[in-house]
């Protein structure tokens, strides 16, 4: 097992502590001199009235002789996440840990005291005169006096998690744990800062009041992060502005919690209550969206100095991991956030050691920020390499699009992913020997030095020839093996990799392509069940009717490229078939079908859910346009191509078909137009080039449908009316209420509805130049950017 795999597996196993308590729960309130909770007693925990939550002692994973005093979900089968744990004296202190013989009781003076086996006080929340302690069904632990007023409640003392019914004000913060199994204060904080922004900070020692955040809500200034008992999580903004919505899942249907995880990502988790013991926790929102892509101007960034951040697509939920470049190791393997150090002696500036170093190539890797000291443009990569080799200060060079950046240690804001592009060339010593010092140089004559350089060059040349030969042979064998048989890969939910399926595999999986679940511009989609060794996987199989003109190799290359693109709002491509005349794509199956099923007047979702779906689609398109290493223009955005997963999270489908089918990227004609009438941008018909603004237009049309829950073409009094034109007229005349009649949730958020309508109108402008980018669209929908009054979309304003 590789070190990366080991780290990922460890994170997965440690993600949540599984509660295993042998004693029976105490189901009543704690009273004066009543029942005592103890790790080794008959009652180690008490349950809320319906058993939803539990409060008591949990064995510590790192040391089973110690116990954590905590509150956790009590009715979720696979894992039971901890939502609160007792801390020592202050919010920034470590967890309260108790030995086996400890006891928690309410004394006759009304104090809740946790005492050690030797009767020493371990924890005391500081209340007196309490009559009883209760755990309520939304997870709050309350200490009451005789007037039934709470003297203390756990919801006021935040750890790393909030749940429905809880809020986070300006004077409070969430702080991550150090690791999933270590409850010590971690490296990350989430709080409303002094400017009113919801912001994520790196915790530094000593504390720095000017410490910069690595993500914030930008111009959204507010008061509270609220998780209400309806299941809506949002940041309440000032001046009665529409809130910054984060997630919205009905409380009566889902267990849910939002946690600042040890990797610095704030994740919203849900668990379907109706699935009982068959359910599992799923991530439905992450802030920041791409944490590895964040950066700070001062400091190391998400990972330590010289390390780089990666986000695995093979784990569910996805997690960030900090890695060291080749020939570098962690300063402390138990604390990887401290960064990495080189395993070799650095280049000596007093002598020419350029032949003693080589480069380790790392694609799609960069360190942004501190470390850059030179930037120049070169026509080829070799110039970039040479410049760094002869420069004793240069440790890393970045080459991207003919640009060369030279960097010195320490490196910060390291990241790796397809969104980065280019490559990092890390300079390392060829041998593990120490650097030649000035004194050792003095023992050599110039002739000896020349002979040594010549011998080294010869050895380097031979080594390169051997490596090239091995690489060529390896490449040939891999290609030969791939041509002879399909790749054998793990298709478990924890590791969906690309696979070259045989036609028989897919014929059997779909029972002869009999269960049709969709039909689009380029083929029919069938539902299938792929039977593996220990389980089965439900898949969606799309048979393509049209192919790239340039043939088989291009098809395979494009499929492999698209298969590397991962985003929570894109449908995952598992594999393909290119056998004989068959060209088939295999996707993950979306159980809730398309968005079309949920935006009609009869079957519409609630307004808050529809708004989150619209934002999710916008984020997916923004990623396709600007986040991929190679830009992808969808060319057919419509509700039928927006699929919804089990948790109603939107996933854009068919996002790579524009590349696979070979749409002309310079001229658009009626022959090669891809798209659907009603969603076409006007420039489709003007023989202009295909641009991302065409997707923006189609998104705007669909956004009207999401807001109004009506089809793009409506039937009114036996006449067909175009929704977007009618909606603009209503907006212009101040009659927005006509667009959402009967939608009480939308009527209660009329400012939010108006904001979405403004965005939609900007998106469908006749002139593509004045349409916003999808990045800007996302910001406007989320309330992070102001929206100017939109002009009449039918008026062509040249710029």
Secondary structure layout:
Blueprint: H1 3-14, E1 30-31, E2 45-47, E3 53-60, E4 63-73, E5 82-85, E6 97-99, E7 103-106, E8 112-115, E9 121-123, E10 132-135, E11 141-144, E12 150-153, E13 161-162, E14 166-168, E15 173-177, E16 185-192, E17 197-202, E18 213-227, E19 232-237, E20 244-248, E21 254-260, E22 266-272, E23 282-287, E24 308-311, E25 320-323, E26 328-330, E27 340-342, E28 357-363, E29 365-367, E30 372-377, H2 381-389, E31 396-400, E32 403-407, E33 414-416, E34 423-429, H3 438-441, H4 446-484, E35 499-500, H5 503-509, E36 516-520, E37 523-531, E38 536-544, H6 552-563, E39 573-577, E40 584-588, H7 607-627, E41 642-644, E42 650-652, H8 657-661, H9 692-708, E43 713-716, E44 719-722, H10 723-732, H11 744-747, H12 750-763, H13 774-782
Parallel strand pairs: 35-39
Antiparallel strand pairs: 1-10, 2-3, 3-4, 4-5, 4-6, 7-8, 8-9, 10-11, 11-12, 13-21, 14-18, 15-16, 16-17, 17-18, 18-19, 19-20, 21-22, 22-23, 24-25, 26-27, 28-34, 29-33, 30-32, 31-32, 31-34, 36-37, 37-38, 38-40, 39-40, 41-42, 43-44
Helix pairs in contact: 7-9, 7-13, 9-12, 10-12
